[in-house]
């Protein structure tokens, strides 16, 4: 049994409450054996050094013939190679690189041997591992290990406040005084967000999971634990939780490793909720932390509202499911990115005769086509009398399968593209990657390592994929420079093409562009980006769109480059020009925009 969740959420207490049951054994954060416990000969929960503890000595003997023969350094290296957060997308692939697949098998073999040894030495039916990291669970998927996940969820503000505490003693080390690892509140909130969404993804992938809320566990531990274990298929004997009383637990010593200093408490232990954050955490900090965590908070609220109430009978019917109501689009903005798509969406959504999905970028015709037309249709259920029903998704231009899919589902809708100087578009895309901590330090390096920066500027070839499927009149090809020079005239031409009345731009519509920014904290920005992708995959596209448009979220996560903004060098610009010169010439020949001269490209 694996306790998953963010740090400082009460996992040590939950693990010890479970481990005091007759058929379970708690062993703490066993992933730390390979990283630090053995190397530092740290204290076991029983109070003895790891090397002197009879329990762990027996585990090493049974597993490897002694810890001296165990591949400790090798497993620690494998953990870095396959069980880090950045590796989760790799675990979702059907096929893996040969080197990654080998490392994954070796990692799984090591933990299969470890868990078997613990179970044999303890005689318990279930091993309670409180290592917390979801990435470890992704690495173990498909290993044959019977993993049952107990998801411990605590208010993000409490977690962030606790993680930020300074000089909290870590008494596990026998060599020198250590303190518990700390994180800044916003970084902790980002990691909290990523952790919760990763655990939700595990559940949707079929892993057996039950959620325990810290705020429910402390006042009602017996009821909460019995319910959660029942959901995990674990039988609970009538007297199995006799050690848990009203506001107190009677805990024996254990052989748990690492974790919270409460690991060493035994005897009568009070059960008190830590709510110091409510008194001490500044209100602006609470709001900032809540803003970072908002995608998961809102999505989980919506999900809980859709669940069948306790005691209610699930609805069953032999009739086919009702088809989603609503029209399908007759207008698509198909790309490219960094060419005014956000501005266009924000402006068109205000027009009384145009219905656009509140969420920009549904990615149906590229990423989520397998979900079916009725899944896509439900995003347009709010459309009523509008003459134009549409979606803005900047990636459809780049997927070679998208044109045929659009033709099959929508017939011949009106489609729009906006051409931007490919070198400027590539550099803007690079800045966006830098903003989320996903790009090299220089644009030149990015051009070497990220081919799509250039390839997404091959507009002529990309448009040809659509011209092979649709008539020329279905495509409205605009130029980004016209939008920059005169937004009102640009909008007038778009509305005329859509055959709806013109409307005047407001002062705020003249320029809705956010300044080029960098992440205040790169791991936090990366975690939020990952969480947003997971939330989007869980049908939370509308929520992601709302959060992305939030000025508060942007201020929390990013800070403008200002005078330190990267600049594109003349050499890098010339490099992109050389790569795409023929494509731009073809565009000029077909559409007569005189782009080479307008963009200042050399002859």
Q: What amount of the residues lies in strands?
A: 5-15%
Calculate the terminal CA-CA distance, rounded to whole Å.
Answer: 67 Å
CA-based gyration radius: 28 Å
Q: Biggest sheet, in brief? A: 5 strands, parallel
Please state the overall shape, judged from the principal axes of the Cα atoms. elongated
Number of strands: 16
**What is the typical, i.e. mean, pLDDT?**
83
The SS-based structural class is alpha/beta
Helix content: 40-55%
Please count the helical segments.
27
Residue runs with pLDDT of under 50 for 5 or more positions = 301-324
Q: Going across the major beta sheet, what is the strand order?
A: 2-3-1-4-7
Write the layout of secondary structure elements.
Layout: E1 2-4, H1 11-19, E2 24-26, H2 32-40, H3 54-64, H4 72-82, H5 88-91, H6 98-122, E3 126-132, H7 134-140, E4 148-153, H8 156-163, E5 169-170, E6 178-179, H9 185-204, E7 208-213, H10 214-217, H11 221-231, E8 248-251, E9 267-270, H12 276-280, H13 283-306, E10 331-335, H14 341-348, E11 354-356, H15 373-377, E12 388-392, H16 402-410, E13 414-419, H17 422-435, H18 443-449, H19 452-455, H20 459-467, E14 475-479, H21 480-485, H22 487-498, E15 517-519, H23 522-537, H24 541-548, H25 551-557, E16 558-560, H26 570-591, H27 595-599
Parallel strand pairs: 1-3, 1-4, 2-3, 4-7, 10-12, 10-13, 11-12, 13-14
Antiparallel strand pairs: 5-6, 8-9, 15-16
Helix pairs in contact: 2-4, 3-6, 4-6, 7-9, 8-9, 9-13, 9-23, 13-23, 13-25, 23-24
């Amino acid at each position: 049994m694996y306790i998953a969740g963010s740090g400082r959420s009460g996992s040590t207490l939950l693990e010890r409450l479970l481990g005091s049951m007759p058929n379970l054994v708690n062993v703490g954060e066993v992933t730390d054996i390979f990283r630090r416990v053995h190397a530092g000969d740290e204290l076991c929960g029983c109070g003895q050094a790891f090397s002197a503890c009879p329990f762990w000595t027996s585990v090493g003997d049974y597993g490897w013939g002694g810890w001296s023969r165990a591949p400790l350094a090798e497993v620690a290296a494998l953990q870095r190679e396959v069980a880090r957060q950045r590796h989760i997308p790799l675990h979702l692939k059907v096929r893996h690189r040969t080197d990654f697949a080998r490392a994954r098998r070796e990692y799984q073999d090591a933990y299969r041997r470890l868990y078997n040894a613990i179970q044999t030495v303890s005689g318990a039916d279930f091993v309670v591992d409180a290592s917390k990291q979801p990435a470890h669970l992704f690495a173990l998927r498909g290993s044959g290990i019977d993993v049952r996940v107990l998801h411990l969820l605590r208010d993000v503000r409490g977690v962030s406040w606790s993680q930020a505490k300074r000089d909290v003693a870590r008494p596990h080390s026998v060599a020198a005084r250590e303190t518990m690892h700390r994180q800044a509140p916003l970084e902790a909130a980002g990691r909290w967000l990523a952790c919760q969404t990763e655990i939700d993804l595990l559940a949707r992938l079929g892993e057996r999971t039950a959620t325990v809320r810290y705020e429910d566990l402390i006042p009602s531990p017996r009821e909460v634990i019995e319910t959660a274990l029942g959901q995990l298929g674990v039988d609970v004997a009538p007297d199995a939780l006799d050690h848990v009383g009203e506001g107190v637990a009677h805990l024996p010593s254990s052989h748990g490793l690492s974790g919270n200093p409460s690991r060493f408490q035994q005897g009568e232990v009070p059960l008190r909720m830590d709510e110091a954050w409510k008194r001490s955490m500044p209100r602006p900090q609470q709001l900032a932390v809540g803003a970072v965590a908002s995608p998961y908070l809102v999505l989980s609220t919506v999900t809980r509202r859709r669940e069948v109430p306790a005691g209610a009978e699930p609805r069953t019917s032999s009739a086919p499911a009702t088809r989603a109501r609503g029209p399908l689009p007759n207008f698509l903005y198909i790309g490219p990115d960094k060419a005014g798509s956000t501005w266009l969406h924000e402006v068109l959504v205000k027009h009384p005769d145009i219905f656009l999905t509140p969420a920009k970028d549904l990615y149906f015709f590229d990423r989520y086509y397998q979900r079916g037309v009725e899944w896509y249709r439900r995003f347009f259920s709010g459309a009523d009398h509008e003459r134009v029903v549409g979606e803005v998704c900047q990636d459809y231009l780049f997927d070679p399968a998208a044109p045929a899919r659009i033709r099959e589902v929508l017939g011949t809708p009106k489609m729009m593209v906006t051409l931007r100087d490919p070198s400027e578009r590539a550099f803007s895309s690079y800045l966006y990657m830098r903003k989320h901590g996903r790009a090299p330090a220089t644009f030149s390096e990015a051009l070497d390592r990220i081919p799509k920066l250039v390839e997404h500027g091959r507009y002529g070839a990309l448009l040809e994929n659509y011209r092979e499927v649709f008539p020329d009149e279905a495509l409205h090809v605009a130029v980004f420079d016209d939008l920059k020079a005169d937004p009102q005239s640009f909008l007038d031409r778009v509305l005329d093409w859509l055959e709806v009345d013109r409307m005047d731009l407001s002062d705020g519509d003249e320029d809705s562009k956010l300044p080029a920014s960098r992440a205040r904290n790169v791991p936090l920005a990366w975690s939020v980006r990952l969480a947003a992708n997971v939330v989007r995959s869980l049908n939370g596209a509308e929520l992601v769109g709302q959060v992305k448009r939030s000025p508060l979220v942007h201020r929390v996560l990013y800070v403008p480059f200002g005078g330190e903004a990267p600049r594109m060098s003349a050499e890098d610009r010339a490099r992109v020009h050389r790569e795409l010169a023929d494509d731009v010439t073809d565009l000029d020949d077909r559409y007569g925009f005189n782009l080479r001269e307008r963009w200042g490209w050399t002859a």
